[in-house]
Write a structure and sequence with these properties.
alpha/beta; 253 residues; binds zinc ion; Rossmann fold; 30% helix
């Protein structure tokens, strides 16, 4: 095949690149909102062939400022987010199998989590994140992303290292009934609609999928495994922090 006939030619030019390994990964994307759209797009561009998308929510006009796969028509028809992404993915990447899972993350059968190597957290609340973290731990790498306005966060959980819940404090458990935003600030549970920006979404989703690329290629040392990255879009800076493994963590303690 000549260089311009291969969709993955340019990425294959990266030293050590293994396209077969990338294509063979089995990935679950939990949440088909802003981050879910962007993460799914990047995975498809990379050539990942098996993606399950978990979401039971429908498209609304308020999604259109940051969700690449959704259209006005989808919003008018109240189309299901996960089904729209699967439908659009089929047009451009017919070889990829994108499966919508129309369910709350808490209702996914336990054995289903065994099918995946990577789970992407593209969620808007703490409870769902904790569930995805607990179900993935020891089975799949959990790559969680969150955004609020100009701020974003990416955490990579890989057993036996620290998990998402290791990073939570007493105050998190005490007020779990309240809605949290994606970078951990408590917000009013009556109004769960967070400020959201397409630019922050793109940066955070790209950082999440970049971690996937590194871990597939065995670049553990370079990865954020056991750490989290904080992105500040106002200052244009990123910081990386270690997450200590808690011996009393309910997920693996
Ligand atoms: Zn833990």
């Amino acid at each position: 095949m000549d260089a311009d006939s291969d969709a993955h030619d340019r990425q294959k030019r990266i030293s050590g690149w293994n396209q077969d390994k990338i294509s063979a990964q089995k990935v679950m994307v939990v949440g088909a909102g802003a981050l879910g759209n962007e993460v799914a797009k990047l995975l498809l561009q990379l050539g990942v062939q098996k993606i399950s998308l978990v979401d039971f929510d429908t498209v609304s006009k308020a999604n259109l400022n940051r969700c690449v796969f959704f259209s006005n028509e989808d919003a008018e028809k109240n189309a299901l987010k996960a089904e729209v992404i699967a439908r659009e993915a089929k047009k451009q990447w017919p070889a990829a199998v994108v499966t919508p899972v129309l369910s709350a993350v808490e209702k996914i059968p336990e054995e289903k989590w065994d099918e995946f190597n990577f789970v992407f957290g593209c969620l808007d609340n703490l409870g769902a994140r904790m569930h995805a973290n607990a179900q993935s731990y020891g089975k799949a790498v959990f790559i969680d992303g969150g955004t609020t306005g100009f701020m974003g966060k990416v955490q990579v959980v890989r057993s036996p290292g620290a998990c998402f819940e290791c990073g939570l404090g007493k105050k998190d458990y005490g007020i779990l009934w309240r809605k949290y935003n994606c970078v951990g600030e408590v917000v009013d549970w009556i109004d769960p609609k967070m400020p959201a920006l397409a630019t922050t979404t793109s940066v955070v989703a790209a950082a999440q999928v970049n971690e996937f690329i590194k871990l597939v290629h065995g670049l553990e040392k370079e990865s954020l495994a056991g750490k989290y990255l904080f992105y500040n879009g106002l200052t244009g800076s990123t910081s990386v922090y270690e997450v200590p493994r808690r011996s009393d963590c309910p997920v693996h303690g």
